Amino acid sequence: MVFFVSLLRPCIFVLIWQTRTLAVSPSPGGDCAKLLKTFAEVVSNYTYCAVNNSRPFRFCCVCEKVYVTALNGHRSIVQDNDCHNDLVLAEKYQIVESAYDFVVNLWKSSNCPACFENDKDGTPKEIKTEITEFFHKLDAVEHCFYNNSQIHVIPVPVNHSASNSSAKVLSVCDSCDKSYGTLKESYKNIESGPEGYKVCADVSASMNYTRQRWSNNFHCVKIHSDLVSVVALTVFFCFLPIIFYTSLRLQGTASKDKKLGTSLRVNHR
Ligand SMILES: *[C@@H]1O[C@H](CO)[C@@H](O)[C@H](O)[C@H]1NC(C)=O
Ligand SMILES: *[C@@H]1O[C@H](CO)[C@@H](O)[C@H](O)[C@H]1NC(C)=O
Ligand SMILES: *[C@@H]1O[C@H](CO)[C@@H](O)[C@H](O)[C@H]1NC(C)=O
Ligand SMILES: *[C@@H]1O[C@H](CO)[C@@H](O)[C@H](O)[C@H]1NC(C)=O
Ligand SMILES: *[C@@H]1O[C@H](CO)[C@@H](O)[C@H](O)[C@H]1NC(C)=O
Ligand SMILES: *[C@@H]1O[C@H](CO)[C@@H](O)[C@H](O)[C@H]1NC(C)=O
Question: Is residue 157 helix, strand or coil?
């Protein structure tokens, strides 16, 4: 019995060893197919997320997780040498690499890295606090806009016949002036980064859109009346010398007339 067990032991060992090696390196082709399938799925999730969050623009903040998943999906393909070098790069039409470039370019061209604290290798970690604060302030402004105008924030084609506004709009300008001011302040702080700093598109697009609503939809910008008074003052000062000299001249002729009048009167006597 003891002899039998001791004979069996190496067999069991060989059996276990074989299953382990099988689990560690399955057929390389099969593994690559799985990696490609996963990458296809994450790229598609990423693309969906990007398009779904393009208006209002929240791509960077909402799609960060899918972006990181897509990066990891590509990384696991690259790390599998057999898969990357022998199968993926050997193909003339580099669809995998093009898809990866698309993922990265979309992220960078939207200045998304500026929204995040990033790792050394550029992987976004968490949203910067100043960005979070900006969006809190934006929420307050949008809430105020909606509360005072009943016009929805989500961009819909403006229905001019339905925007029956003048009274409402006045209350928007007065009620939201303060929260709009703090939002602008917050944006200015974000904007004043180091040389060549580009504001993350989530923030710049939101600010642009809110600014347009403020001035174009609600007509809250008072630059018009300021401009009118500036022009009026300028015109006034330009004509001041002319007014001065004409008035002098008028006075001069008036006194001449007076003198003439008195001399005439003297003659008359
Ligand atoms: C893609 O998105 C779907 C739905 O959000 C999710 O169930 C799935 O796990 C995602 N795929 C990957 C590979 O992350
Ligand atoms: C698409 O975006 C909207 C908000 O813009 C969100 O409510 C919805 O859940 C998103 N769809 C998916 C599948 O994530
Ligand atoms: C909405 O606006 C009204 C007056 O314009 C104000 O009394 C009310 O507190 C506002 N509500 C919120 C939630 O801001
Ligand atoms: C625009 O407003 C008018 C008047 O309220 C309404 O009859 C029309 O259906 C609206 N159009 C759209 C596209 O909402
Ligand atoms: C504009 O709004 C007022 C009340 O807010 C309403 O009485 C009036 O009928 C509206 N006019 C149009 C053209 O919708
Ligand atoms: C703001 O939006 C307008 C129109 O939506 C666009 O033409 C302009 O380029 C935008 N500006 C910035 C700084 O994004």
Answer: coil
Q: What sign does the CA torsion over 127, 144, 220, 181 have?
A: negative
Q: What are the mean pLDDT values of the chain's consecutive 10-residue runs (269 residues total)?
A: 53 45 47 93 97 94 96 94 83 89 96 93 92 95 87 61 56 90 94 84 94 88 64 70 72 61 51
d(CA 91, CA 88): 6
Gap from CA of 151 to ligand 4 centroid (Å): 13
pLDDT score, position 107: 96
Whole-Å CA distances, 1 to 4, 6, 9, 14, 194: 5, 9, 13, 21, 80
Which residue's alpha carbon is at the smallest distance from atom 7 of ligand 3?
A: 147
The confidence score (pLDDT) of residue 26 equals 45
Coil, helix or strand at residue 235: helix
DSSP run (H or E) holding 16? helix 2-24
140 close to 105: Cβ distance less than 8 angstroms: no
Give the residue, by CA position, lying nearest to ligand 6 atom 1. Answer: 208
**Contact between 198 and 182 (Cβ < 8 Å):** no
Q: Which two tokens stand for residue 10?
A: 């190496």
Q: How far apart are CA 64 and CA 204, in angstroms?
A: 17
Tokens 């898969």 correspond to what residue? 83
